[in-house]
Amino acid sequence: MAEHEEKHEESLMEKIADTIHGHDSSSDSDDDKPSESSIKTKVFRLFGRERSVHHVFGGGKPADIFLWRNKKLSAGALGVATVIWVLFELLEYNLLTLVCHLLILALAILFLWSNATSFIKKSPPRIPEVQIPKDPVLEFAQALRFEINWAFAVLRDIASGRDLKKFLSVIAGLWVLSIVGSWCNFLTLLYIVFVLLHTVPVLYEKYEDKVDPFAEKAMHEIKKQYAVFDAKVLSKIPRGPLKEKKKD
User: Helix axis angle, 164-183 relative to 134-159, nearest 10°?
Assistant: First the structure.
């Protein structure tokens, strides 16, 4: 009887040990497998971004408009931009003429409506009191001032001759912009940019898993060609001082 109990205890201990060993081996194998989050972090994203497209656009109402989160608002913004472009570009309306005609129409309608209410015995229209708030205007002015100062600092840094790559990039961008400007006027260019902002980001967000691999190959090829160009041409061009001498 005692021998039977000892054998039962030994078999029970062996089962417990086998269970613990199997759990350890499974946990080791799970640790060896790369986690899904680590795999996702290794995926190439366009422009080296780590956030979603919605967060890149600020994550607020502008991002909702550009990415068509609110379809009515996005369609309304695109429709208004199209009407403005048609009025000024196709119909060749002047801004001052258009503003004056709209004010004449609005004032005439409100004036006639206010006087007609006394004859038809209805309440006059409630015209809201419109005032420009102070805080948003100051915030916009401060943000605009910051962006302008940043642009001046970038231009100064480029003109100092410290970064040849940035200098060539800006020159190429300005040259392309001048060519585009010769094809169309400023209003048409703004309209094209506005339409692109309403189409390209939402299409990229939808097909980013297919676009990013091609973008990775293109970026790799561009870097390789730039390295060859840098070794043969750019490295032989004399550059300005990299650092200004500190005053003692």
Answer: 120
**C-alpha–C-alpha distance, residues 94 and 81, integer Å:** 16
Instruction: Give the chain's mean pLDDT.
Output: 77
Local structure of residue 57 (DSSP, 8 states) = T
Q: Are 88 and 184 in contact (CB under 8 A)?
A: no
Evaluated on CA atoms 19, 23, 24, 26, the torsion sign reads positive
CA terminus-to-terminus distance, the chain: 96
Query: pLDDT tens-digit profile of 197-241?
Result: 999 888 888 888 888 888 888 888 888 888 888 787 777 776 655
What are all long-range contacts of 186-195, with beta carbons under 8 Å and residues at least 24 apart?
187/85, 187/88, 187/89, 188/85, 188/89, 191/81, 191/82, 191/84, 191/85, 191/89, 194/78, 194/81, 195/78, 195/81
User: What's the pLDDT tens digit per position in 11-40?
Assistant: 555 655 555 555 444 444 444 444 444 444
Please state, for a pLDDT cut of 90, what percent of the chain lies above it: 14
